[in-house]
Specification:
The complex is a heterotrimer of chains A (about 725), B (about 160) and C (about 70). Chain B is mostly helical and about 160 residues long. Chain B has helices at about 1-10, 20-25, 35-40, 45-60, 85-100, 105, 110-140, 150-155; strands at about 15, 70-75. Classes of the chains: A alpha+beta (about 725), B mainly alpha (about 160), C mainly alpha (about 70). At the A-B interface, helix 9, helix 10 and helix 13 of A face helix 1, helix 3, helix 4, helix 5 and helix 6 of B.
Amino acid sequence: MVINSITLTNFQCYFGEMKFEFKAGLNVVIGDNGAGKSKLYDAFYWVLYDQVFDSLNREFKKTNQVKGNLVSDKAKALCEPGEMVKTEVEMVVYNPKQEMEYTLTRSYTVSKNDSGVLRQDPESNFTILKTDKFKISRPMVNQADIASLLKGILPDDVKPYMWFQGEQVDSLIDFKNNSTLTHAINVLSDIREFDFFEEVSQKAYEAAEKEYHRRLKEASSDTRKNEELENQKQRIQRDLARLEEEKKLAAENLTYAVERKDLLLNKVDDAQQIKSLNNRESHLKERLKEIDERLVKMKAGINKSLISRNWILKGAGSLVDMFAEKYDIYSQTRNRQEAAFSAKKEALDELYKEFRLPVDVPEPIFVKQMLEKEHCLVCDREAPNGSAPYLKILELLERSKAHKQKPKPEPITKHDFSKEFKSLYQNGLSLQGMINHADHEIRTAIGDILESEAKYKEVKGELDSIQREIMEAVNASSVSSIDSSIDIVNEFQSQLEAIVSSEKKLDRLKYEAEAKQKEGKKIDEELKGLSTGKISPILEEKKNVLEDFRDIAKSTRERVFNRLILQLEEEANHHYYSMTAENKSVRGRIKLEKQANGNYMPKNLDSEGRILTSINDSNIILIKLAVIMAIISAKKSSPAADLYPLITDAPTSKFGDNYAIGFCRAASQVYSQSIVISKDFYNKPDLQQRLFSEAGEKIGNIYLIEPSLSEEVQREHRDELEVRLTKIR
Amino acid sequence: MEFIKRFEDRAPVYAKVYREPIVNRFANVGGGKETEMFERGKFFSNVYELYMYAAMLGLKKNYRIPLESVETQKFIEIRDWKTSTELVRFITMALIARSNLDMNELENMEEAQVERTLTELKDLLEEYANGGFDLIYTKVQDEPYFFENEYCFVEMLGEGI
Amino acid sequence: MSKEDLLKEFLMDDIVEEKGYMTKEDVSKLKFIDHSNSKLISVLKIAILGKNDGDSVDTMVRKLNQTLNK
């Protein structure tokens, strides 16, 4: 189908009637932001599907949810009370094969009552007019026919790939969801045909096999054994089904692990480098901490030494000398005093010499007793009172009394501080010895501190430079942070291990499945052996032929699919190169890679076959578009490119100028009709010229739309907004 | 040990004006781990150690300032200056050396007079310490950055000797 | 795909040669309208024709079953 025209009447920002006419080939509608591009896209959507796109919530909404907002604000404002205003979109499509033209019209009405309040219809109104080559028009009423027509314009499953807005491209081929490509291929190519054959062959075989086994059972000599074997067979079937499930799961895990590993591959080297730098940094931090703690201790200790090692006495040696002088005088004087004292004592002693008692004189108390008793105890003689011995005893008594009265010599001084002064002096002397070392000790201690401080500075310098290195490495690499570098290396390791274990598992499962199948075949043989009657050879042949048919259908589908993939790859790269012709720098090559779980994923590889991680957003979208276009262009017999038009609004919104040209060029080559609604050519007459020359004879019509108000003003003056339409070509 | 013991019963004072800028700043009033205290900027574990430092400073330079008509601040008796008895003894010795005390005469004095002499000796200690504080304080005013060095007091030992 | 292409596509599968039905060389010379004794080829033709006619899966299975019962 070719879209000949679309006419908008009072539709959203389009006030009045606006008609766009289209031809085969590339048609472009150019408009700046706010001009009405997405509303034009809405018009196409609305006339066919009764829905418009709500860009705020990013979803399609039906008419009954949007209602009066469909109608131009200006039209509503100009509507007088008691009057109605209608919005309408009319699309004319042409089927060249049947030479039939269809006019699809959808309208929606609001009315203003007498008090000026708007009444909104609940639903829109839809009609189709069919016009044949003789220009005779008839309305289409048959619902089946209408459904068929709509499908013919654009089937539902193809729709997302042909009519899309820029924002939707991302989800069409989702790099994170590896079934999206498979899905697209299924929809857009004729691989479905082979799915049909596969299904048919499988069912046919199963039916034949069932029949065969039934006959075997009937013809069996031993029904019990037959049943036993059948049960075993069923168990084996169940086991095989379970193994299949496990295989699927292992394949999914393997796919995921490989994806992650590939993603991390480029990052690992960087990550490892960062990790090792990080280790050095930690090590240096440790050392710095050690040195700092040591410094603190040393400095605290040095102050302690002022007292504990008597450093405050530095230079105090002369004080000791001063005291020594004084002490000298003191002790000399003291000595003299002591000498004088001794002499005095001696003289006194001398003086009282005669009163010195003999050694063997008894104590005075005995003497008294002797006198009383009048008896000398020494010589044991009588000593009567008045006799010579009696008088001698009396004399002794007198002498001891006198001796007692001998005066003591006066003390040398009132106080004797000699011991204390001596101790002070000795203390001073011993410390004086130390004072001379103090200098050396102090210098050594300070020297140690200075050395440690220098070491600290050195290590700090090393630490600073390592930290700078780390920052540079992080910035230059694709690693996002220092922490993630450790995660990357660890995850990479674990994914490698996961890959090995998944592969091992898959091998094991395959082996197990094969063993089970062998078992199953053996049972089949046994079952056959049990049958006494002959099984009809026709039945057996039927089963065998259908088995072959099933295997061939399956294998062929896979073959065709693989071939399709290769073709797609080639086509996709062709389109991709065409789109990026002006920006060859970093684009790489598209590869459609088979995953373990059977799905295919588009990958972008550099010239060495490694995954390109530094591609920007525009390249990703281009790859997706290239793949979509490839699916459509690769199958020559596929109806998509020929029969369905591409309608897209701003897929190049993230691109630069060159990509916009590239995209249009590719589109003009792939689709027999494309309608591109874009802002990239707005206000760029040079670019528009290039567009004309690039698209060559495939160029259709080119329009320019401009709003009557600027975007900032639009909000407040909605009632005055309308669109101006200019046909450039 | 009559003489020394009686001297050590005394509790010398310092000029209150030095309490904030010097004593509280450089001496650790109250307990605490050595390195922690050091990190708080205190170079002396307690007040008397700082006092001994100041006294030695004055004694070495023979610089003393009488404490006349100034407010004073007490701390603890000399006998409680426990860190280093030998240092305390040394200071006592140095005081005697610097004073005009006649040791022989002292031995012949009456009790009351001995007491007076001891008081004079304590006064002398205060004066030398005061001189030392003055030297430190002047330096704090003139060269404040000097005290940002963690071993400034060690360095101060080497000056002008 | 056209009928010719479809038939050739299936017959070009390795299994066909392995099971001894036809060599690849013979397949390339084959035309859809050629008569064949091979039950496999009959099956393929019925399936291809049925697809073209828009037969459902169940219809196809029945047709194949009938053909092979003769």
